[in-house]
Amino acid sequence: MSFIDELKRRNVIRVAIVYAITAWLLIQIVATSFPILHLPDWSVTLVTVLILIGFPLALIFAWAFELTPEGLKKDKDVDRNRSITPVTGRKLDFVIIALLVVTLGYFAYDKFVASPVELQDSIKSIAVLAFDNMSDDPDNEYFSDGISEEILNLLAKVPELRVTSRSSAFSFKGQNLDVPTMAARLKVAYVLEGSVRKSGNQLRITAQLIEAVTDSHLWSETYNFELENIFAIQDEIAESVVGALKVQLLGEAPRTDTTSPEAYALYLQSKALAAQFTVAGFLQAEAVVLRVLEIDSTYVPAWLWLARIYIRGSGNGAWHPHEAYAKSRAAVMEALRLDADNAQAHAALSRIARNYDYDLETARKEQELALTLAPHDPRVLQGAAWLARIDGDYAEAIRLYKVVEILDPVSWRIKLDLGTSYFLSGRLAEAKSAYAEVLELIPIGNVVNFRLGAVMLVSGDLDDALLQMNKETQNGRRLAGRAMVLHAMGDTDRAATELEKLIVLGDRWTYELAQVHAYLGNLDESFRWLHRAIDRRDSSLSLMTGDPFLDNLRDDPRLDDVLERLGRKVH
Predict the structure, then answer these.
(1) Using CA atoms, how far apart are residues 111 and 115, in angstroms rounded to an integer?
(2) pLDDT interval class at 140 (50, 70, 90)
(3) What's the domain count of the chain?
(4) What is the DSSP code string of 334-388?
(5) Residue 444 located in a structural domain
(6) Looking at 66, 92, 114, which one is the last position of a domain?
(7) Are 320 and 297 in contact (CB under 8 A)?
(8) Full residue range of the structural domain in which residue 182 is found
(9) For residue 432, is pLDDT > 70?
(10) Phi, psi of 192 (to 5 degrees)
(11) Of 101, 161, 464, 549, which shows the fewest CB atoms inside 10 Å?
(12) pTM (2 decimals)?
């Protein structure tokens, strides 16, 4: 008998296969669970080494011993005519098949379910705080904020890091809180903070990486340089952070998109202007970023930012949606011409297809591409959640918003979207809890009181519903909410008065007018306002699928015309 035949007879090859598959599974479990248990990094290495050492020992054991009905015996002491190695071999075959099924199941979950939108606890987490402006001119604050955000964006491109988004990381600006407190609220293990001093063309950046639990510095550096070297310094800071965290990169380190110093400064200024969220601010932001593109028409971030300005500004009345979406699309297409694999550009195309073209097939295709390119980008994940909500897949929308909430833990907008997904799916207690969290972050108004009042209205808690509607600061939603609550209370005259006031406000509240008319039983008027909402591209139409205030329309055949115009399934 050849050596290979003898290995097969003694089941050594089968044992090797069983050991290899089991070892791989154990290493995956250890690599995932040990960091969650806060065990040191070397413990994972130790277990892996022990498993590797055990492999040849298992093969030697399989060669030297045989399992018999009387127990374990040395192979040389077993009569070949009484050997049961063929029976043992068949049992091992079943074990191999079972292990392969488990392994394939694990691989499929990791590849297609957990990835790209599940965040592993073993990934190191970090928040980049807004760098302090140490310049003599307080107007340079936009510059220090911009540099902080660019470093944050660089680190966010590292798949092996979980980076808190800007809205949460910058929320502590101006507050006198210590690093451990901020890290605990942001749910991160590390914090990068620093300062920027700008004097003419000269810059001085100080950055320091802090471990939250011990409040100790892992790395710090001060850079003195001229403005034209800003991009190299940002790259160096990101690389230093990755190195200090001992992150093993699976690909190349991300690099900053570069442009001229003048264009970069204007780009950051445009962002600061748009952050005012006023019509004047958006118009000024547009003018400034157009100057950036006059200086450098190949600067992709500026094209993407211009596209975002138009969409945001249309919601504030700076541009009519038709004009805003046309300009936004043109800017996105130029960004894609320069960088065909830009995740943000594909996400923007998905948003345009979803909210303006009502082409959900294209929206899904572009969204999937964006997720493939940037699986942990909060804005990309939000787009996926929005699409799931439009499709009525509230379980998926809630799951996605919870993932985004990990990346953006103190963002009231994410909690608001999560609460709305709960509300539309009928999970009223969870919706109420989510909205209460929002009100802890922004004490009053800005749609939250209206949404909370809606939960109470549907729950039948009319007095508290009216109280919340009275607190709402957005005129249109306050009037809409009061009209529906008063109608539910039986005060139809006052409800009609509130509705008349809402009609006077005009087309900005088309969807809310459709809601109120439907709730009050004015179905003809409700359908008329729904079609006007479609004409105007009212973003609130995304709520239609599960909106309880439109329930009176569900059995009306005219609803099919509305759904068809929106590119949705006709019942």
Answers:
(1) 5
(2) confident
(3) 4
(4) HHHHH-TT-HHHHHHHHHHIIIII--HHHHHHHHHHHHHH-TT-HHHHHHHHHHH
(5) yes
(6) 114
(7) no
(8) 124-256
(9) yes
(10) -110, 120
(11) 101
(12) 0.72
